[in-house]
Amino acid sequence: MSLENVKETAEKIRSMEIRGAGEIARSAAESLKNFVEDSTASEGEKFIEQLKDAGDILISARPTAVSLPNAVNYILHRIENCELDDIETLRNLAKNAADSFIDNSLKAVETIGLFGARRIDDGDTIMTHCNSKAAIEVIKSAWGEGKDIEVIASEARPRYQGQITVKELASEGIPTTLIVDSAVRAIIKKVDKVVVGADCIAANGAVINKIGTSQIALCANEARVLFFVAAETYKFHPETHLGEIVEIEERDPEEVADPSEFEGIRIWNPAFDVTPADYIDLIITEKGIIPPEAAIMIIKEEFGWAVGGKW
Ligand code: RI2
Q: Hey, whose CA ends up nearest to atom 1 of ligand 1?
């Protein structure tokens, strides 16, 4: 029954019913917690094995957002080196780890909002892309401080998460404009700052975010518009320090167009792109604001345990 629940959550993540790098990480943690609560394992080793299998199912749901494996590993790491025969302790440790991941994650988004708002000035026009809770928190927090700001949001084809963003911002009373993705360069000179989220940040400071982000960064760079990324530290990818390449998810062509109407034509639907560190001014994390070049320090601090002896 409870592995079914894990599979259900994984399916919701795959289909993007649950989406957003932070949200999928929190849902994975919640799902593992439920799994632990329902688990009937009476022996520690078996319990850890089952939890790892459940974690693997969740991790396999989407490949790019590193927040997903980071959430699962956060929980597993806390029980792996414990006394294996004390099953109740293991169970409680796993549940507490899931709770603390979720709690820390929500607090991190809030803190990012407060830190990021300091970098937003009265009168700024801010561009954002897709639908990032962390980026939106920066904008809402600046607005909450009484700064007179405006937002321009690109729609983020093919899933149009930009529409979620504009509705959310407008419901706060923030003056908001929706544009098509291809309008970015035409209007970038009206923008003071770009704020986007991240699905994954590599050791070299490159940011992997919704497809279209890197084009916005290129336009911003050309027009000398500041480019900020808002991301919790669990979106930094530990293994990129060891040279691991981040897999870019390719989603169903049907999200772009009906393939039956385009016979003999390949429809290619990469969901994310890579913005090199050179195009990023700042990364706003809950631990502080850093230049992209300092990504490696966050990785060392936050994930030293994960890569341990390997570096
Ligand atoms: P938060 C989303 O991915 C977007 O790329 C967004 O920028 C990123 O996750 C971070 O979102 P998708 O799930 O964690 O829409 O800041 O593919 O909410």
A: 132
